[in-house]
Structure formats: structure tokens, C-alpha cells
Amino acid sequence: MAEKYFNALNYSLANEDTRLEVELCLFYKPASILSICGSGGRFLPLLASNPKKIIALDLAPQQLYLAELRQLTIKILDFEGFLLFWGYPPYKTTENRTKRQNIFNGLRLSPDCRQYFEDLFSSCNWEGLIYQGKWEKTMTVVPKYLRKVIGGTYDKMFSFKNQDEQNRYLQAKMNDRIWKIVPKSVMMVFGNAAFFNAMLYRGHFVKKNIPGDYYEFYRDAFKRLFANGLARENYFLQLLFFSELRYPEGNPIEAIAGNFNACKKALENNPEIDLVQDNILAFSKKTKETFDFISLSDVPSYFEGPSETNYLQDLRRCLNPNAIIVVRAYLRIPVGTLLDGYEDITDQHAEAIAKEKVQMYRIFIYRYKG
User: Fold this and answer.
1) What's the whole-model pTM score?
2) How high does pLDDT run on average in the chain?
3) Domains in the chain, ordered, with CATH?
4) What are the start-end ranges of the H helices in the chain?
5) DSSP 8-class letter at 5
């Protein structure tokens, strides 16, 4: 992808539900982890499994700065302070600006990281940062406009605390042509490659190869989301309908007390955490480290040619026997990927995959036979 894409804060919250990877790490107990960095919220929750080492990769230095800031706030703050600083419910990003500034001023960050966030906080007047990424702004721009038109028409979806009640309500509304206008409009916008190219990917949107059109893909994903969990417990649905998070029970896993406290305790053991500006293909060919768990995000969806065929084979040199590799495919499944030396164990974790809170990814889980 173009260099300009990797010269901005692309993710500040979570475009993936890391609960899946956390569950896998708690089950397999990896000592060493390699992960795509993203916002930092896609690898720091893995600390709950108490690894000895994590290396996080990203081409955008801004993402690595964000991970540095996240890690330090987990280490220094208590749970309520963490929620307040980032702006997670029950707090808001637009509140507690002075407290947020005071917390930031007390953090020992690297000089480049501090300078970056001094500039960013100054530009947003000390709002919490969870909506500052380009992905988060893209996801919320349409719902924010629609709410000005339709108000709280769809808020009742988030009132249910029982799956059967939510199902009955949605079934009734699916027969209401007027009620369906806005959800359908949202899906048509999100199912438009030109929209994402203009707002986020700058001409490098993934080249879809899955069957069906974009609208069908998003329609089916939303059906899974509503069928497999309460809307109020889903941060992604809150973003899409409210343009913000409102219900604490729907916070991403880093902002759930159990995970936060486990990660904080793990940091007391001083695990080695390295933030590296590099891509997975280049890093895997030169590193001397070996890993028990690799989280690739949806990076393989952007591979073409020999890269999509050979990336798992290239990773073998830095894998320990029985290492677990998690791949997410967004709209495009890598073609012709060689699986020699691997066992596909995706079906063994089907239940966890079904509960994933975004449902926009086809997920593959492999075990390296070594």
C-alpha cells in the first residue's frame, strides 16, 4: 500500500474484536507473540495470557506511538483512570479534558511520542483519542449525519438485555419498509469501494474476491452481528448507530475490567515489548526471534502474487513447533496460499469466531506442525 497511507493515525480504537485472539492466547499460553500493531488495542490485551515477549509491527510510526501510550496508561493508571483518559464509557471523550491533560503530563514517554501527542491533543482540545483514527472517523461520518435526520429512531435496539427480546423486535422491524431505510442506506454506503477509497484507503482498498456484491456482504455480516449478541454489548454497532460508544458493557476488551487488570498484572513481570516499524514479510525474513503465536490481522488480504502464495512458508523460519497463526481476510481471501507444514484448526474455534463483535472478517487459524 502507498507510503502516504502509513503516514497517519489510521486506527485509534479497534477495527477488529481482539477477544478472539485473547481467548486463543489464554488457551495456548504462548511465551512469545508477534502481532500487527494497529491501535495497540489489538495486541496489548494479549498480555492477559502472561507472555514473556511481544513484538508489534507497523509501518506507521503514529500507530507505534499510540501503542506506547496505551501500554504506559495500562501500567500507570487504575481501571477507572484508564477509561477516563481514553474516553471509554461511562466517560466521554469530550469530558475530563483537564484531568486528561494532567495525566498525560505525568507520563514518561519517548520524545517523539510525546511531541506527536502534544500536537494531536492540542488539535483536538484534549478530547479522548479513541475516535481520532481515520478508520474511526470513516465509520462514524455517515451515522453522525443520519442521526441529525432521524434522531433516536433506532436507539431501542440497544435497550435490550435479552437476546430473545432483541430478536423479536428486529424480526418485527424487518417487515417495516420505512424502518429499514436507514440501515439499508448505511450498508449501501459501507458497501461502496469508492467511499472507502476516498475516505480512508486513498486508492488502495482491498481487491474483493469473495462471492456476491458488497451490499450482500455487509447485509449478511449485520445479520450475524444481531443474531449472535446484544447490540448494547457490541462496540462496533454502537459506532455505526451512535457515532460513539455509550454502553460500558460494549467496550472493546482492553476496556473491560477483567482483561485490563490481567494485563496490568502481567506488566508487573516486565515482559519484553518491542514496537518495530516494519512490515511482516520483511521482518519475518530477517528476525532471529521465534514465536509461539502470530496475529496477522487482515494484512494477507492485501498481498498479491508470490506474497499471498508464500507468506505462511516464509513465516516458518520464525515459528516454534505448534505455533498458532491467526489470519483475518477482509473481502479478499489470499489465493493459492501454500499450507505445507500447517494444520487448519479454524473449525476447532468456530464458537469463538461466531461471537466476534465485528463479523467483517473471514478468520483462519493455523497450527504450525514444526
Assistant:
1) 0.92
2) 91
3) 11-131+266-368 (3.40.50.150), 134-250 (no CATH)
4) 19-28, 61-76, 79-86, 97-105, 111-123, 134-150, 163-173, 181-190, 193-196, 214-227, 235-242, 257-267, 280-286, 306-315, 350-354
5) G
